[in-house]
Every structure is written in structure tokens, then in C-alpha cells.
Amino acid sequence: MTAKTVTILGATGSIGKSTIDLISRNPGRFEVIALTAHTDVQGLAAAARRVGARHAVIGSEALYSELREALDGSGTQPAAGPDAVVEVAGSGADLTMAAIVGCAGLAPVMAALKSGRTVALANKESLVSAGGVMTSAAAESGAMILPVDSEHNAIFQCFDHARPHGIRRIVLTASGGPFRTRSLEEMRQVTPAEAVAHPNWSMGAKTSVDSATLMNKGLELIEAFHLFRLGADAFDAVIHPQSVVHSLVEYVDGSVLAQLGAPDMRIPIAYTLAYPERMETPCERLDLVRTGRLDFEAPDLERFPALGLAKAILAEGGAKPAILNAANEIAVAAFLDSRIGFLDIATIASEALSVYDPPAPRSVDEVFEVDARAREISSDIVGKYLH
Ligand code: NAD
Ligand code: MG
Question: Are 67 and 12 in contact (CB under 8 A)?
């Protein structure tokens, strides 16, 4: 078997590290073309040495000489700057793992899609902001998008891609996050440290806060809408605190298919790395007897308004998802800096959506314009909620 060539965008993050872990457990199966990171030079250089990457790219230009030193004698070529990240993203690896967090991942993801190969997509924010633009680029180049997000990976595995007309409904599961049983009053007081401590999954800070507000599930409904082209009403979310059932696909005859597994991102990542084959992982095996019970409940949209916001704009589309995403990124950063309260995140996103209503972006440049303006507007709104 010839080695599959792989590039990892966001190699120093939670998804990036899990991907490196799986690649280093399978010597000879993968050949790493390039790794990228934003500012973590030492983490990037260590990962590049571990997998013998041909290139390592640091997003922050000022860190070039530090990276060159850290890679001395390794055989890995250093590079720096956002353009260099985009360049390696488009260099045509068999598989590009898109694991940058936020809309910052959009330009590299677009470059990877244009190369016409396979993109394993973790970076949901890019698809939320630029759904139509990204799926058109993939259709044009023939690129395949394999979803890494656990819910979408589950749906992908259960979805009859040849006969989508037989599918009636898609139900995404959500753990409910760390505040599932807290009252609104209690949620007003939560700290960034409490919000990033997720009960089941280990993730980067931004995605952890999104899971706590349920904005993550809202963004995921929009992500699912672009990946699995059914009508907007076909997508729903249910709370499932054990995170064992990763999502469900309901067929017109009443059959429901679901994918189950331990809550470990290495399972969906391995699915995308090995696709269309399967590969071993060191992940815990599902033991249903020990799990004992699987609970499901309806999400409370009053305590978690972010989910309602995303649901409301799912059918509308246009520029709204890009505005929701940009406002959320700004508000989450402000919350993580302890500048605003937890409940202000959804309020700020809602205000941004109500004051800014541009036409639907038709190109990636137009998405960037909407994203930039939405960030300015949201930063101003954040100013009203500072404490
Ligand atoms: P993380 O914060 O742990 O890592 C983010 C990575 O992106 C890092 O390597 C960082 O260097 C890079 N990065 C950040 N800003 C950048 C910029 N401006 N330019 C270039 N690179 C930049 O995030 P994560 O938890 O690994 O999540 C990555 C993506 O995967 C997110 O879109 C997230 O929503 C999605 N996702 C994560 C999980 C999870 O379990 N962690 C699950 C599903 C989906
Ligand atoms: Mg998910």
C-alpha cells in the first residue's frame, strides 16, 4: 500500500494533536507533507519532527526565525505567514485535515478544496460562514469533503448518499455541555474556567464555550445543512448527556440509523484518515452494559438561546450564518477574557443579526467583507456589555 499524503492545518490544536497521534501510531501508512500552526512554534516543531513533515508553517510571520531554529537539523522546511499557510493548504496532499479554529480557516480550506483532493473538515466555522461558496468550489474541483465533527461524521456514516430522497430527518445529538442543569440565574455567573471544562469531550477553548452555550449545536445544524442537502426543516437537535449516540438519520419508512462510540474525536478522525478503509484506534470500546442507559431530552431554548438563533436563520441563509459566526467569535473571545458575561454571548450575536443585514455573499471575498464588518459591529456591541 502506498502511503497516503496528508497535510494538517491547525496541527497544534486539539484535533490536530489527535490526528498526529493516529498518524504516528501507523508508521508507513501516511506521509506528512505539511503541518501548520498559528503561534505555537515549539508545538509545531515537535509535531513536525515526530511525523517527519516535509514543511512546517507558522501563521505569525514574526515567528519565522524561531521556527527555523526549532527545526534545525530536522529536514523539515520552515515557512511563515498567512500566505504560506494557504500555499501549503493547496499543495495537493491526498488528504488535508482542516483543523484551524474559526473563520481564519476559510482561506486555507478554500485552497485545499480547489486542489480537488479530499478535505477532512473539522473547521465548521468556515462552512457556516461560506457554505454555498465552499460547496460550489468542491463541486467544481471534484474535491470530497469528509466531515470530522463527530455528529456529521456519524451522519455521513449512516447517510445513503446514492438515495438521499429516502431520508426524512437528521437529528444531531448534543451533550448539553457543563451547564445543562443550571438555572439562567446560575449561568449569569459562570466563569471562563467553568465553561471550558466540558463533561465528555476535550476541545479547544472556543469550541468548549460554544458547547456550553449550545452555539456549537446551532453552528452544527448549519454545517449539516450544507453537507447533507435536505430542506431546513429536516434538521433537528436533541440533548443526549452520555455522548454515546453521535447522531441519527431517519428514513421515510421509519427506520432510524445511528452511529455510536466512545466520546473520543480520534474515532471520527480515524474514519476520515483511513477512508474508504478503516483503521485501528486505541480508543475505549463502547460497553453498553457499563454505560447502562442512554438519555434524551429536548433542548431548552430559553436557557440556551444560541441554538434558537441558529435554527431561525437556517432557512434564511444568505449572510446571516456568517454574521452569527463572526459575532459569536468576537463575543466568545470577550467572554474568555472575562470582559463580558456568559449569557451576553447569545445576546450580542442576536443584536448583531438584527442591526446588520447585507445581501448574500456570492464569493469568498464577499464572505470576508461580511465577516469583517460583522466583527466590527459585534466589537461595538460588546462595548455595551463590559463589566
Ligand atoms: P484548538 O483551539 O485546540 O486549535 C486550533 C488550531 O488552529 C491550532 O493549531 C492553532 O494554531 C490554529 N489557529 C488558530 N488561529 C489561527 C489563525 N488565525 N491562523 C492559522 N491557524 C490558526 O481548536 P480545536 O478544538 O482543535 O478545533 C479546531 C476546529 O475543529 C474548530 O473549528 C472546532 O469547531 C472543530 N471541532 C473540534 C472538536 C474538538 O473536539 N476539539 C470537535 C469537533 C469540531
Ligand atoms: Mg460536534
Answer: no
CA of 290 to the centre of ligand 1 (A): 32
The CA 111 to ligand 1 mean position distance, Å, reads: 18
Q: Which atom of ligand 1 is nearest to the CA of 15?
A: 26
Nearest ligand to residue 83 Cα = 1
Ligand 1 pocket residues where CB is under 6 Å? 10-16, 37-38, 40, 59, 85, 99-101, 104, 122-125, 149, 201, 203-204, 206-207, 265
Ordered domains of the chain (ranges, CATH): 4-148 (3.40.50.720), 152-264+285-311 (no CATH), 318-387 (1.10.1740.10)
Q: Using 50, 70 and 90 to split pLDDT, how confident is the model at 72? A: very high
Residue-by-residue DSSP string for 187-216 = HHT--HHHHH--SS----HHHHHHHHHTHH
Contact 320, 313 (CB under 8 A): yes
Q: pTM of the full predicted structure?
A: 0.97
Query: Which atom of ligand 1 lies nearest, measured to the CA of 11?
Result: 9
Among 9, 12, 14, say which to mutate for ligand 1: greatest number of ligand atoms within 8 Å of CB.
Answer: 14
Dihedral class, residue 169 (left if φ above 0, else alpha if ψ from -120 to 50, else beta) = beta
Cα(first)–Cα(last) distance of the chain, in Å? Answer: 59
| Cell numbers linked to 44 | 509545531
The three cell numbers locating residue 343:
449569557
Asked if residue 202 has pLDDT above 90, the reply is no
Mean pLDDT, rounded, for 246-264: 98
Ligand 2 geometric centre to CA of 50 (Å): 28
Tell how far the Cα of 387 is from the centroid of ligand 2, in angstroms.
31
CA nearest to 342, candidates 201, 200, 193: 193
Rounded Cα–Cα distance for residues 234 and 277 (Å): 30
Do 50 and 44 form a contact (C-beta atoms < 8 A)? Answer: no
Pairing, β 30-37 against β 4-9: parallel
Who's near 271: CB < 8 A, 6+ residues apart? 146, 153, 157, 278
